Prior knowledge:
585 residues; alpha+beta; 4 domains; four-stranded mixed beta sheet; 22 helices; 7% strand
Amino acid sequence: MSAVSQTSQNSVNNESNSDSNLAINRPETGKKTYRWNRENYSRTRRRIDIWIFVFTLLFKFWRNGKKWSYSGGFTEEKLAQRRKAQAIWIRESLLELGPTFIKVGQLFSTRADLFPSEYVEELAKLQDRVPAFAYEQVAAIIEKDLGKPIGQLFHKFDPTPLAAASLGQVHKAQLHSGEEVVVKVQRPGLKQLFTIDLAILKQIARYFQNHPRWGQGKDWIGIYEECCRILWEETDYINEGRNADTFRRNFRQENWVHVPRVYWRYASPRVLTLEYLPGIKISHYEAIEAAGLDRKLLARLGAKAYLQQLLNSGFFHADPHPGNIAVSPEGSLIFYDFGMMGQIKNNIREKLMDTLFGIAQKNADLVVNSLIEVGALTPTGDLSPVRRSVQYMLDNFMDKPFEEQSIEAISEDLYDIAYGQPFRFPATFTFVMRAFSTLEGVGKGLDPEFNFMEVAQPFAMQLMTNSNGRNNSTIFDEIGRQAAQVGSTALGLPRRIEDTIDKLERGDLRVRVRSIESERALRRLSAVQMGTNHTILIGALILSATLLFVNGSINLAAIAAGLALVPAWALLRLYRKIDRSDRMF
């Protein structure tokens, strides 16, 4: 929620013009009333609303796989169109369900390894612009948390919020010392709503985890716990303040990055007071040009700032969308909203080396194993299909020079591989990939010729040549490295053989053998058994209809005969399926 950047025109327009812009960006109260925002909204009604959404969603998912539900016959295009319409409905439904589900939807917009691309693209549009809550509630929260009324704490306090979001809203104020600040106030009753919603979401996660199809190869309980952690962290404004301080310290040597200062005297878990740093929203290209700023330079600075976060400190902004980045009149970048941050472990550079070498050598085993060590992949099953997919991608999509690669294209390839495979991407990895894609999009908006990978190339080269003295610049270094790798493999071979024998003795080693002919026979046997059940049911219903008709119960006989049509139709479809299967083999 970055209200400051929304008033970015202040820095380039005259006073009257900036006032009009400020009025335009203020939240519109009363335009839309959501049920969750009502004071008399009961817990029972809340549970009913959530479960209605869940069951409706499950029905839509079930219907997608039923080819008879498509008018005019099933096609992939019709499935894609239906998914697109469903994605829009999901986005609107999440907005109706309120803060918890808005945030969950935004988190799921990074999980293209879990959901089809149609859903991910639509969830990425999910904006938490919701009605503002009353100034009286703002005053009550501030007075309760900070121990004094607003008049004693602030010299001026604008009762109309600059912006309102699902978690809270922002007001402009002035301290008695004359300093301009913005005050973030959490939405009343938010934690109680989160408690209710997360308890229900846990039940939903358990249902999906135990589902024979949707739970296969997916750790829904782990995903739920990950969402819980992120959501609770975002509700703690003290934690956000610490994040802002850490982020500012990491860029203290850079004069081209500005971060708002936290006023800890006016902070609590539900109230956060920050330095007022107005700027031009980085996607307001006309305003940037009017200020005389270099758009190409700003595009490169945005990418450079994020690469420094990842490679220098490992502490990075997990939600760098255009609303959270602004530009000062001098051309410096201003970052806002530090509720969602990511942390990369200190030893990540060493492990990333193996990933880079694996990509350079087109070695899928090395890439997959290094990604598991890094934590970018969490294996939940047999990874053989994943390795084959990665090898295919390396062989077919990595032929271009590094600086000509596209982050968006690489992300799409990764997520295409990930969807439906027995592993999941942790939040840190998906946050990084989404941030890269977002910054690449912002950069291309500023400069159509911008290429994120071109900016990243010097960082990657420095990482590959200088990290831990490992240098791949000469053939002798490469020969030495490969010799060391072969020696290490040879020395570890007896141990691996011994581990394999131990697993065989314990019964922990599984040998998978696939026989197409036996699988076909088993499928046919299962289908014949199902056909027998349908036939018995048809016979029973017809017999019942005959007895009822003989005894004069014509209406009941008609109902029984009508019911017999259902298994008869299912039996006909089953026989057609068996016939198609036989022709295929």
